[in-house]
Amino acid sequence: MKGFLKTTFAVVVGICLFTGIFFVGGLVFFVGLAASTSSSQPVTIDQHSVLELKLSQQIAEIGEVDPFESLNSSYFPSKGSASLHEYLDIINKAAADDNISGIYLKGGYFGGSMPMAVEIRAALKAFKSEGKFIYAYADNISEAGYYIISEADKIYLNPIGDLEFNGLSSEILYWKDFFKKIGVEPEVFRVGKYKSAVEPFMTNKMSSANKEQISSYLNSLNDIYLQGVSDSRGIAVEELKEISNKMKIRSSEDALALKFVDELTYEDEVTTQLASELDLEDSNDISFVKYNKYKDVTDPRSRQLGEGKVVVLSAEGEIIYGKAEGGSKAIANVDLVKEINDLADDDDVDAVVLRVNSPGGSALSSDIIWRAVQNLKKKKPVVASMSTYAASGGYYISMGCDKIVAYPNTITGSIGIFGLGFNPSELMQKKLGIKSYAVSTGEFSNFQSMLDDFSDEDFDIIQKSVEKGYKVFTSKAAEGRHMKIDDLLAVAQGRVWTGIQAKKVGLVDELGGYNEAIKIAADLAGLEEGDYKVKYLPGEVDFFQEILKGMDMEVQSRVKQAVLGEYSIKMDKLTNWMQSLQGVQAAIPYYEEIEGFERP
């Protein structure tokens, strides 16, 4: 729905600007309509209500409210997202609410990342410990979806539905021959044998070092996944491995026979069983409460907290230099440093949790943010809480914190540096017939021109810059982790680790999510449980500001998708990669997808 509104609103504004007319009244109506779709007034619910959670609900670190959620349909799907901390709080709130008897998980595709699923599973388990039930129904269940669903008391699958359970795989696109055919020469500079972000531009096949690291963290992720399913369903891990390796679940009947689901049935039959669970005569009598409505229900929990304050500051997206513009979701040093400095100067804030969800990006921007964290740490404790990714630049901005907390399946590490440029001289001169001439005052005045071949001296200058960046990165990482530089270098080299692996090699202090990080930060500040409140920044994204900031990008995206179809996403990755590579980079591979794990 939001995408439709952005496009429509862009056209309307364009027409207004072209004709010199601006309908103020229409805009007021537009804003008024949005305001009328959401109410901040507390609402009440019936006794024995059931909280309905759509598994496909988009979950992000920084949520975005869609005021037109109530108009959601298959034609205009909602683009809103829930913040993870609020999603968890809703489950915890329901656990304490005497009017909520159970949770109904609906659908089989998970709208968050697997590390997020770890904390959601824990919240669901705590919910059940209050003597409440969880039922789950889906027409089809994905691998990621099942990780959540397996925690339910009863799992129902459509009789002709499917359940995916065949392990993880990672597929990388290699571009070397493509660039050779079009006459563009990638110029690659890197440090670290595992720094495989630039590998697709250097070769046509996966290196043994890259294969080693991918195999290592994929198997680690898979082990964490299987252990979770085993704990929930009571099936031995070795048996689960055999089922997964041989893909023994190929039909709904297989899922039932292997005890992955409890019944094969249709949704109307599930609601009938729910009614029976609630001692109701008819399924129509069930009082389902949806997520958005339950947010406005009066909280039954006591909120009498002390004067202390712990702030959770979320940093989500690619790390870029400068300011974030055009409604893009990115970590920009100018914006984040200002927020960090404000927290440093706020005497009412006792401790900070820096919540990081980033695959990295600009090395310069990462270092500027690192410096701000150091200044903050001089005044109050700072704890890094790693989400889906906190790798390369994401690790860089985390490594200076007093403590680092990660999920077992967080992707982290990738301590390495690279540089990448593209020389299109053959394309321009031989294929397109375009020549260039430059007049310069010095030998290197035209240094790094896109239309000149790189000389050995040019290459040496950039390579030394990359090596310097790696030395700075590793020395600061060793200092932050209180490790000898040789010990740090042994686990660096651009290698990617899961959270559980990172803890073993000393790159992470504790395993856990929000709660663990907040407790550690409070403890470092000398605050006892119950003596502090928690504030989350920057808060949910303003819908209308995002529409105005992102209109042009949305229109361009829709045109591109109409032309390229299913290939538009892959081309977006390539073009975004090439456009974003300004200066030395600290980022993990962008061309890698883990098949089986949905990600936001």
Summarize the structure.
The chain is of the alpha/beta class.
Give a description of the structure.
43% of the residues lie in helices and 18% in strands. It has 22 helices and 24 strands. Strand 16, helix 15 and strand 17 (403-406) form a beta-alpha-beta unit. The radius of gyration is 26 Å and the shape is globular. The two termini are 18 Å apart. Mean pLDDT is 85; it is low at 1-39, 547-555 and 577-582.
User: Could you give a short account of the major beta sheet?
Assistant: 8 strands, mixed
Helix content: 40-55%
Computed CA radius of gyration, to the nearest angstrom? 26 Å
Distance between the termini: 18 Å
Q: β content, as a range? A: 15-25%
Stretches where pLDDT is under 50 for at least 5 consecutive residues are 1-39, 547-555, 577-582
- Class per helix and strand makeup: alpha/beta
Principal-axis shape equals globular
The average pLDDT score comes to 85
Number of strands: 24
Figure out the total of helices. Answer: 22
From the structure above, extract its key features.
single chain, 600 residues, alpha/beta, 8-stranded mixed β-sheet, 6-stranded parallel β-sheet, 24 strands, disordered N terminus
